[in-house]
């Protein structure tokens, strides 16, 4: 496993960035960098399940491990979803089940630093190094409007 960190400085309040990150419409916009048409199914409460989905019914089932509004969100990824159904763990998913993905908002005067960390297996490193900065750049654009 490798931990990748991505950071972007945004001229907006933590509250504004938080809403861009997790409100349905803007979430769909910035996560299109990972998969066009992606969306999340969740009540967005700490301890709840969350499904990160593609339009075709594939995705990941996870748990909202920690949520501090306007400050910090942490997801623990559990397993895969196919045909809109959670799959039991297998040899491949056991390699990354329990991996974390976090988002931290750090205010600094009129700016806020958005810092995201994601645990990845080797075969996905290049994908995340390409997609994550694109997604965060979209968050910045939306928050600074």
Please specify the SSE layout and strand pairing.
Elements: E1 2-10, H1 14-22, H2 24-31, E2 39-41, E3 49-53, E4 59-68, E5 72-82, E6 85-86, H3 91-94, E7 100-108, E8 111-120, H4 125-143
Helix pairs in contact: 1-2, 1-4, 2-4
What does this structure look like?
The chain is α+β, with helices and mostly antiparallel strands. Helix content is 28%, strand content 41%. It has helices at residues 14-22, 24-31, 91-94, 125-143; strands at residues 2-10, 39-41, 49-53, 59-68, 72-82, 85-86, 100-108, 111-120. Strands 1, 2, 3, 4, 5, 6, 7 and 8 form an eight-stranded antiparallel beta sheet that branches. Helix 1 crosses helix 2 (24-31), helix 1 (14-22) packs across helix 4 and helix 2 (24-31) crosses helix 4. The termini are far apart.
Task: Summarize, please.
By secondary structure, the protein is of the alpha+beta class.
Shape: globular
Task: Give the topology string: H per helix, E per strand.
Answer: EHHEEEEEHEEH
Rg of Cα set = 15 Å
Number of strands: 8
Please work out how many helical segments DSSP would assign: 4
Proportion of residues in extended strands: 35-45%
Uncertain runs are none
Mean pLDDT: 95
Structural class: alpha+beta
> Gap between N and C termini, in Å?
36 Å
Sheet of most strands? 8 strands, antiparallel
Helix content: 25-40%
Name a few traits of the molecule:
single chain; 145 residues; alpha+beta; 4 helices; globular
């Amino acid at each position: 496993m490798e931990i990748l960190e991505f950071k972007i400085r945004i001229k907006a309040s933590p509250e504004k960035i938080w809403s861009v990150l997790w409100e349905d419409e803007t979430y769909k916009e910035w996560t299109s960098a990972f998969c066009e048409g992606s969306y999340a199914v969740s009540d967005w409460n700490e301890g709840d399940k969350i499904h990160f989905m593609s339009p075709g019914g594939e995705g990941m089932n996870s748990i909202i491990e920690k949520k501090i509004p306007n400050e910090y969100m942490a997801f623990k990824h559990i397993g895969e979803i196919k045909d809109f159904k959670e799959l039991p763990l297998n040899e491949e998913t056991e390699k990354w089940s329990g991996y974390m993905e976090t988002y931290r908002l750090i205010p600094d005067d009129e700016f806020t630093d958005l810092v995201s960390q994601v645990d990845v297996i080797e075969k996905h490193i290049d994908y995340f190094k390409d997609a994550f900065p694109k997604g965060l750049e979209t968050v910045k654009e939306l928050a600074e409007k």
